[in-house]
Amino acid sequence: MSAEPRINDRIRVPEVRLVGPNGEQVGIVPIAKALELARESDLDLVEVAPTARPPVAKLMDYGKFKYESAMKAREARKNQAHTVIKEIKLRPKIDPHDYETKKGHVVRFLKAGDKVKVTIMFRGREQSRPELGYRLLQRLADDVEELGFVESRPKQDGRNMIMVIGPHKKKTARGQEAETTA
User: Which SUPFAM superfamilies match (predicted)?
Assistant: First the structure.
């Protein structure tokens, strides 16, 4: 069964509860009379509630209805939040200047509203010292805590230690107004 509502001659019930083009209740009418009213007013008979007893049908311009519902769906998709995860890779023995550079990238990603996956790669003997990586991740989280929060705590994954930092939610215009008036 398709998701499209049945229209005009596809409605196969003896009678329907008819709703007029402006939303007024016409009442329960035989399907032949409903189709005749639709033809007279140059509109379509659209079944809006097929599970009701009797089914509810409305007189409307079906093409216009489909176009408006497609526009609403498109608008809803446009307003959806797109989460992007950026990744930064570090080593446990990172130079202070290199650390500042990588921290700058994390800050830039968080300001743009993206999540950041921070990966520390261990090699050789470094694998026996995971606390070095843990301290480095904690330091990074503390340095960027005004822009983001730790979404998933640092955890060891084979040769890597991974932590995810998410941006703080942006304040809405209403939220900012409430703060200024308080």
Answer: Translation initiation factor IF3, C-terminal domain, Translation initiation factor IF3, N-terminal domain
